């Protein structure tokens, strides 16, 4: 406080009025580069998507727009493959997210022990995160091969017949989910580990004094302490699952997500409509539906989290 | 006044500097507990699962297609690596793709770090009208996947006649709401207001303060943001395959082409995958520790 007061008498090199005016304006110069790009390539496309979804726009002539009203949406809801894609997005989302986060929690718990080679273990677990969707999917597509894939070979050793990972609905969705799980489990484990390390150790000491077992400590100290972190990972994974695209596209290389669309997700369906069938307007409608879906899911997550913590507080 | 000139202690560095005994008491849960044999066994199994696909890529890329169809499968690298590299260079132009990816990811990294440090500094330390609202918009859109804007973005790029040109991928890639938020948090924590006040009293302009005080202090944060940005740009998939084609591919575009069914030789596909992944693996091998630190820091702040 005194610092600013004593600073006033010192005469600045520029007239104070000019200087003060410049100081009011100059901050905008610092945010201008970001906000110019952000407005042009971030905000504008997101908002304009809703507008485009009301028009007929063809890929070859994106300049010509013909008003369709809600026509793109009615066409969308009348297409059985939209509902298939919606269902697939949901099931693949559950199959990939739930085991991923549960395993990540377990691994984080183990990584939180005092360990030799701690840095190595953490780095090695993050390795899949560094690979691209495309690379990971091409490798897993090979491993999941029906006739000569390594995974079917190993399953054969323990007496399971060869699984057709491409044509079976459940099997193909499990295969696609496996790629997601492989890429993201280590990343989430590190996020959880960071959350665990910020839980004050006094809580554990108090629990120990009260005679709580390790198991009880995990459930009554670690998990409640991790709640914001868990909510964060659930939200991020939900958003990721809603727009899943690269894995189903490259699993067999077809934009329809398998012969009977058995693992086509909404993201892939949007790509098929836009860049396979050239209906950009229709694709925009799908993007907008995905956006609303994300809003609903994230809102539901936050609501559940808040209700749970209120319940906890009431106890 | 002179005491203020001393560089502020940075949060991330403290963990290493602490005395082991104190550190144990300070941080959470199981740190006091030594990992048992079972813990090691499970963790090593997880590491093997993480690493195996990489090993398998090397095996498959160095074999012939016929080798890959053998039962029982071959699990050791073979002699065909160079030949498969040559084949994939010819069939998918991975060489050009690598060069393009370096140009794209490099430009995006430099541009993003610069834009985000400037904006992050303004949001952290400067006072101006609309600061709160602009920051809220930035953070609010952080969670919205850019994939949802690809259609208007494509129309815009088509209008500008940029389809199939690298700037179509570079310019939209510079927008990182996360980066602005990350740099803001970093500077709020590690740049004391007193330091800026002192410089102002000495008559330094804001630009001078930015280059001589903010940037040196922000450097570790900029490095972490740079690494994360580079990896994300290198691995970005949806937008490049929309905006570019095989005439001007990035690595991911070339891999999509490889997986599109035109190349049937699995060992050639794996050779392409290996080439496309090597640069990120190299970055990761050199800086893995810092990347792990960056992700964990970001998690606590986020």
Automatic annotation (TrEMBL), chain A:
InterPro entries: ABC_transporter_permease (IPR051393), MetI-like (IPR000515), MetI-like_sf (IPR035906). It is a multi-pass membrane protein. Pfam families: BPD_transp_1. The chain crosses the membrane at residues 28-55, 90-111, 123-145, 165-184, 226-246, 285-305. Residues 86-299 form the ABC transmembrane type-1 domain. Keywords: Cell membrane, Membrane, Transmembrane, Transmembrane helix, Transport. It comes from the Bacteria. It is found in: Cell membrane. Coiled coil: none annotated. Belongs to the binding-protein-dependent transport system permease family. This is Sugar ABC transporter permease. It comes from Streptomyces kurssanovii.
TrEMBL record, chain B:
Belongs to the binding-protein-dependent transport system permease family. It comes from Streptomyces kurssanovii. The keyword Transport applies. Residues 1-31 are annotated as: Disordered. This is Carbohydrate ABC transporter permease. It comes from the Bacteria. Residues 98-287 form the ABC transmembrane type-1 domain. PROSITE patterns: ABC_TM1. It is found in: Cell membrane. The lineage of its organism: Bacteria, Bacillati, Actinomycetota, Actinomycetes, Kitasatosporales. InterPro entries: MetI-like, MetI-like_sf. It is a multi-pass membrane protein. The keyword Disulfide bond does not apply. SUPFAM superfamilies: MetI-like. The chain crosses the membrane at residues 38-58, 98-121, 133-157, 169-188, 209-234, 268-287. Keywords: Cell membrane, Membrane, Transmembrane, Transmembrane helix, Transport. Coiled coil: none annotated.
